[in-house]
Amino acid sequence: MTIETLPQDPTSYDLIEQWVDRTFVAGNGSVQTEGRTGNHWILSAVFAGRTPDQLRELRGFLALVRGQRNRVKFLIPGYTIAGGMSAHLANTVQLVGAHTAGATSISIDGLQASLTPAFKAGDYLTINNQLVEVSADANSDGGGAATVSIWPELHQAYADNTSVEYVAPFGVFLQQAPASRNRPEDLTMARIQITLMQDVLA
Q: 71-101: buried (b, 16+ CB within 10 Å) or exposed (e) per residue?
């Protein structure tokens, strides 16, 4: 298996939260929800208004990915941080201590000190290859450390000092369904749509 970087930014895309919680009716008739791990992102991306060469590049890329045999690295296009770390893009941010799979918050250091907030809810981070979203504003303390709530939960265990990417976050995905391609006579109207699922084992 290889990880191939998507060669072009999409015209539009949606990152969709995919929850795997289970809802059931208890014996007393109440509806209850059981939280489960394995929550992940679904990515739907559309490529339109491309030149013939760009279309060929995309078709070649899809052939290279070979369905679910290889993986797709997707960088968030035009991403900028909303939190205070937007003014401190050269910092090396890392996990503090070992983190277990299923954790819904991470401890990090390497931040600029005393930022309120360092990251805002809705900011993205990448831990190893896992794309997560900050789910609540997080402030850094006087030593440049913070505890950050995230979604989805950590898919794997990570060691102390694992790198946390905050400037150019990305996710690793696999194809969920065959790509959709239309071939009108006017190639300026051609479009390719791909649907990808976050690889929880990447």
A: bbebbbeeeebebbbbebeebebbbbeebee
**Arithmetic mean of pLDDT, 63-73:** 93
Contact 1, 66 (CB under 8 A): no
Check which CATH number belongs to the domain holding 91 and give it: 2.40.30.290
pLDDT band at 26 (very low <50, low <70, confident <90, very high): confident
Main-chain phi, psi angles of 198, to 5 degrees:
-60, 135
Helical (H) or strand (E) element with 62: helix 52-65
Residue where the block lists tokens 């799979």: 101
pLDDT given for residue 74 in this prediction: 98
Is 137 buried (19+), middle (13-18) or exposed (0-12) by CB count in 10 A? middle
Task: Identify the pLDDT of residue 187.
Answer: 62
Residue 87 and residue 160 in one domain: yes
Q: What is the pTM of this model?
A: 0.90
